[in-house]
């Protein structure tokens, strides 16, 4: 293996560190002493290097070293280093390709305890379906998750994660991070624990930010911590359980830092963050007083400056929006809107009655891991994605037609056009304001959107409050440069607490994950399950079931066209589908079809929902002469394993007058 000169010293250091860990020098001294004493008595005066190597080989020292340290040719994105070396360790990354020029943090979860909510839960029987825990991690643009384990008071979470610690500065990304550099990296490891019940419904159990830098002071490069996970929302002050976590640096540091240095650094970061947040709060209060002085009625407007996250922490709403690029995972803004709409809508749970809405805006990592959230979570994610696609996007806070609070997204075109995006449905509405000063007989645009009022709009660097006489959407003019219509916050003040890296309390932005679903396999599996359920349902009604495979296949084009229309807003392919069906249905026969859309892949749940429709029930329970049934399922996967599931039931039968 050829190593570039600039990498030579780093590679030597890594090998030296590992040999020190094996105590190779002590073992060699022992062999040397034994060799001189046993193999070479007083009559033998010379001990050659060859004799000594044979002695090392006989005792297996050389074999042990080569087993621990070996080279393997692998492909890697860095052409400067064509080979990797592997260190065999008693960890789960035995076969991991480790770049010797990078620093890694090995985070190992070695079990959980004190999950008291599951104290009375019996151990699951082999093969029994049960609720599970899954742990998700995010660290510096890297995401991982554990295998699901049964929920228990002491869940058997045994998992290891190899996290790369890389430098941030331009031109230094390929250099190994030393102790001083790592001390300045304040990005935490974000741990999110999700519970999945037997019906595949997910619940956010805990969201925790782990400061991993305590390992920098560990003399044996390894430290163990008990992480107390707190609940979320109204239970954010109640412990949910404890995770035992082991942290280890690889390769080990040649010199560790003192714990006092690490504590001082963390204290300085907290003080700096607290001071920035205090100054912003003082500014926000002054800004709010000025806003109320404009018009007393502003007190009742939906102007939201701060929002609580899942841990009960108050953060400026602008910090929930970032510029998020999806790489190759999403191809257009409309596809991004479709993806966000496929994440289920669920309001934050409230313990007890009263009908009040629980205040909870989730961090992006918690929202993505859970796979569902409230309208605020959807709107901030969609706004972040649209900003990534280069649009001038904002989150709008206001009310819907029935008066309930709501958030949605707005984009401004270069021509001044205003488009509303409903993040829960991916519907788009072109906004045209009504002119209240126009003559009575002058034509006025009709409101097309379901939104009633708008109190404020914001994105990652702008916050504007609506100070127009009326906050009605239909009368609102979105001319943000006009200070008589919109009161803006200072961009510098917002940047001090909302810009990436501005404060240590700001959660890092996770990347989107590619879908792991195989669409063809998932579609086939769900289709087989639907066929079985239809056949069983008809058997209970004493009806036979005959499937028409050709007709089932023809339904695919319709389902593909439906999904394409949801993504692009353009309908196409309907003529071909209708022509194919006419050819497949003989003269004198009747064809009926029923398409339906789901966000999940639970066959029994989907079939129960379908039967609630009289049109679907009429097809599934069809009676007549020469009845042939068809069903087609198409699963369209999106990032984060969000999926659009289309099912179409159809039948054809001979018409009898």
From TrEMBL:
Domain CEP76/DRC7 peptidase-like: 359-489
Compartments it resides in: Cytoplasm, Cytoskeleton, Microtubule organizing center, Centrosome, Centriole
UniProt keyword annotation of tRNA-binding present: no
Domain of life according to the entry: Eukaryota
UniProt KW keywords: Cytoplasm, Cytoskeleton
Cytoplasm is among the record's keywords: yes
Coiled coil: none
GO biological process: regulation of centriole replication
Ranges for domain Centrosomal protein of 76 kDa C-terminal: 519-654
Pfam families: CEP76-C2 (PF15627), CEP76_C (PF24652), CEP76_N (PF24654), CEPT76_peptidase (PF24656)
Any Gene Ontology CC annotation: centriole
Domain called CEP76 N-terminal: residue spans: 10-69
Major localization class: cytoplasm
Record domain CEP76 C2: where: 97-253
Family: Belongs to the CEP76 family.
Record-linked PANTHER family: CENTROSOMAL PROTEIN OF 76 KDA (PTHR46436)
Protein purpose: Centrosomal protein involved in regulation of centriole duplication. Required to limit centriole duplication to once per cell cycle by preventing centriole reduplication.
Name the UniProt record assigns to this protein: Centrosomal protein of 76 kDa
Taxonomic source organism: Myripristis murdjan
